[in-house]
Every structure is written in C-alpha cells, then in structure tokens.
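Page header: ASSEMBLY MODEL / two components / 595 residues total.
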Amino acid sequence: MNVASDIQLTLSEGLKSLYDHNVDAGQLALQPTRKEFAGTYTFVTFPYGKISKKNPMQTAEELGEFLKSNCKAVAGYNVVKGFLNIELDGSIWNSILNGILDDKTLETPVSNGKRMMVEYSSPNTNKPLHLGHLRNNFLGYSVSKIYEALGYDVVKVQIINDRGIHICKSMIAWLKFGDGETPESSGLKGDKLAGKYYVAFDKAYKEEIAKLQEEGISKEEAEKQAPLLLEAQEMLRKWEAKDPKVYALWQKMNGWVYDGFNTTYKQMGVEFDKLYYESDTYLLGKDEVEAGLEGGQFFEKEDGSVWIDLTADGLDEKIVRRSDGTAVYMTQDIGTAIQRNKEFEGLEKMVYTVGNEQDYHFKVLFLILKKLGYNWADGLYHLSYGMVDLPSGKMKSREGTVVDADDLMTEMVKTAEDHTRELGKIEGFTTEQANELYDTLGLGALKYFLLKVDPKKRMLFDPKESIEFQGNTGPFIQYTHARISAIKRRADELGITYGAVDTGLALDSIESELIFLLSDIKSKISLAAEEYSPSIIAQYVYDLAKDYNKFYAEKQIFGDDNDKVVQFRVALSVQVARQIKFGMSLLGIKVPERM
RNA sequence: GGCCCCUUAGUUCAAGGGAUAGAAUAGAAGUUUCCUAAACUUUAGAUCCAGGUUCGAGUCCUGGAGGGGCCA
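Prediction written out in full:
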C-alpha cells in the first residue's frame, strides 16, 4: 500500500473521466507540499489547462474534488493558483508507520537476481593514498551498498596499477639510496616507503637535468637523456622480459605497498571482493584489435598504427595500437572489460569510479565496446566525480600540498577525541570503548563531509579548518542516533513495548512529517542508485535527524499521561533510529549507542 | 587551437521546468529544576552578465565574462 501511487492512480482516472485524457499514472508528478501550505502532496495543474479547457485553478478544484471522493486516503484539499495541495486523512499516518515497523526488507532486501560490478580505488603503487582516493573509495563503497539495498549482487573490485615506469622509478631510487631500508627497519608504512623513494627519484632526476642543462643541453633533451631515467627505462624493459632480479625486487616493493594500502583500507572501512593487477591485464585487448580490424570497426594507418574513427559520433579518431605494435591504455581497458564479463556472467552493470578528468576516455571506451558488438556495453557507467580542491587549488605532490589519507583520518579521530573530552562525554566508557567512539565519530565526520556533496561536482577541502561536528555533519546525525538509543534503553527499563502503534491517535504536524519522511526511504534509495549519488542518502538522513531533533525538543516522550501516546512516541523514535542507522550504513558510516 | 565541466547568502553545500530559492557555518538574540545543549527557537543575508524558449527558468537554448579539466 503506497499512498503516493494511490493518488497518482486516482488522478489519472480523474483526468480520464473529467477531460477524457489518458496518461500513465506514473507520469503524474507529485511533489511534497511546501511547509507553508496545508497538505502532504502537491499536484501542479498548469500543464493541464489545455486538456481541461479551464484555467489551472478550476482544474485543480475539479481534480481535488475528484480525489476527495474517489481516494480514501485523501481527506481534503486546497488550491493556490495552479497548485493542488492534497491533504491526507490524519488516521492514515499511524497505519503507514505500522507498515514500516514490520518491514524487514529494508536491511535484508529481497534479491532481484541481478549482478553488477563496481570498481573503485584503483591506485598506483608508487604513492600513498590521498584525499582524492578517499572521495573515490567512499563513493564506490557507498554506491555498492546502495545497490545491494536494492537487491543487487554487487562485486566490488579494483585494478591496481602495479607496473610501469613509475614503480621502476621507486625501485631504482631504493636501490641507489635505500641502503636496504624496509618497512620493518624504518617503521615506515610500506606505501609511504615506496612513495619516499619515488620522491627521491624525482629529486635526483631533477638535479641531473639541471646539471645537463649547465653543460649546454636543452631542457627537453636533458629530460630524455638523464641517466636515472635511462636506468628506469632499462629496468622496465627487464621487467617486461621477466628478469628474475628485477621481478623479485618489484614483488618485494609492491608487497610492502599492499600491506600499507590494506592498513589504509581497513581504517577507511572499505573492502573488495576481487583485486585485479595491471601486470596481469596490460597485455589484454590485443586480440580485440585484430578482431576489430577484421570486423571493420578499426582501420590501419600507413605507419601501421590502428585507429577507430568516432567522428560520426561527435568524437575524434582514437588510437588503439601504436605503430610499434604496443598497446595503449584503451586497449587494455577494452580487454579487461571483456575478461570481466566472461569471468562474471550476466553483469547487468559495470560501474567505474574514476575522476572526471577521464570523462573523455570512458566515453570513447564505452562507445568502442558498443561498436565491437558487446550487448553489455549499454550497462557500463562511468561514476565520474569532481576533484577535491584545496583553497590553493589542485593538490600537487611537487608543492607538497597533497593531503595524505592516513594523516587525515588520524587527525579526524584526534579531533573527535578532543571534542568529546571537551564535552565531557566519556564517563563510564572503557578506554577501548572510548577509542572506538573516536574512530566512529572521526571517520563519520570525514565520510559524511565527502559524501554529502553531489559526486559530479568538485568540492573544496580546507585543511586548516578541520571538518565540523555541528550542523549538517556526520556527528550531528550520529548524535541523534545516540539520543534515541538512550530513549530505547529507558523504554526497556520501564517495560514499554514499541511494536504496533494505536491508529486512533491524533498526531501533530511534526509527527506526521516524520512518518512521511520515514515512508520515503525506499524511493530515496532508488533515486540515489539511479543517479549514482550517495549525496541523496546523506541529505535524506540529515533531514530525518533534523526533524527528529525538532520533535525531541517539542515533545516529551515519557511525559504523556496516555500510555498509547508514550508507546507511539517510543515506536516512532526507535524507527527513526533504525532508519538513520541503515541510511548511514549505506554511506559506510557507523552510528554509536551513546556519545 | 579543438572538446568537456563548473559559477547560488561572507563561507561550504541543497533545490527531479513549478509557489516567497533551502540548509549548515560565521554574525545578532534567546532556550537546560524536563528523555544527551554535538541540540532547539528567532533574526539578517544569495541565483556571474545579456538575450531567448515557456503559463512558469537557478534549472532548457544562444552569446559573453570568470574558473577548472581533457586531447595533442
């Protein structure tokens, strides 16, 4: 039983019987009524003037009258200009609440039998993870959770860029300047260690370039001739030839990096079902080039390079194989996508969580796969997100403005601790419990901060102003949950049950508003999935928490003489907590029982 | 040079072509013998510019300004 769709259906019947007009009920847009007017849903009648041959106000009147007499849930209506505000029968709210209280499918959705893949994180192994990766990981993880809530079987993956010139640079520098340093000997996290030598390489390389320039060599030439670079290139060749010594070193250093990454992922609270490595996939796609040549989708130029012409689709020509026969990124991505579809049958969707600087790349990739005739290509989606900018602009490793993921998380947890101590809120906590709380709050603040913004948009992060704990923040929502947990504890002590509520109670507007919000969660999850946007969930949970706090300030939960009212308020509160907890879990955020 | 994206209170973010553009924060003023004041209440404050489409434009179209990105 869904009130909104009941109304839509009745409206479509009304349009048919009053004006002989046929519309699909689902097409009729209902919007929530603005707070300053009476009503729950609003139907805009301006567009129907042509059909009714009446002015919008009369149209609204007639439709309102029709609804009132043909839809049980509708108790009345009011018309303001072309806006038909639909007022629901007050007794309906508690019936709706009772329906929700019982609904187990929120946390344990029914499988829809569909499977999809979400790729996120996908770092290079020469540098530690930074703020941009945090946005990427939180987004990818959250989108996975959102689709799982709809009943999808979601395979979470990442592809690690573990090969290429960048890692060779770290290896060369480590050999030259490392003096055998290991994570154990130095106490450095493995990814930090590799990053350190990547930076060391860059520094030494620049010195060599400067020296060569002093000797009268042009900058461009110097950049190509610097001995260190030549060594790195030589190492890459050896790696490709599987030279045992180089291979062993490569495995050792990457192993350190993975240990480091795993620590970071664990702190982030994300996980993967399967890892891909570029060292396994970088040769994929070459057969596809041949197939594409035969199939006529690709063509060969005089120099032997292979291209695809996408000018008819408004794009340009794109290279898929160089004249020397080597592959480009595109080739590899084509091969990997095909391999994944063989490996996991029936992938309805494949989501790539990658920054928007690669918009063009994915447009081309998806189009090529479609042209190659793969019918699953329609289910490919680039979850493109904007950069996280600093007040100074883009993060630049050269200028040392990169915000390290580990450091930032540690700092957030520390801030949570300071804040909590200041408020004196850890009485009765064991050290372990307190630390868990700081973790929950610090990470919650960070994740909420990064997820509340529409993924498509770039956003600003100011390291000097630490993320807030008041207002539209993770901790505010967590606090609301903790408050309700206290209510629940007291209700249990008092022996108050919070099962089905009495449907005969008269509710205040804040109470029916809360129930309306509660009833809206599934449509919000669907919308968030459709838009690949956790921000919709974040906004929803915030609205819920905000409304609840208003209710909490206005109403005494245990102070009413009528037991049924007390029981209703407890049940309402507990359901709000349940949905906050679930909504936050879709964002990968935990909620505490007390704080 | 070609292509793509962005511009909303002082600041950080909302707004599925719909009503008087919402929050948060910073500012001002208040609320605690009462279930957690990380809360609540009140107050002031914004759509880059110029055209166009529409009954109706922050949203769609054209041009311009400013910012960012991609391709060599």
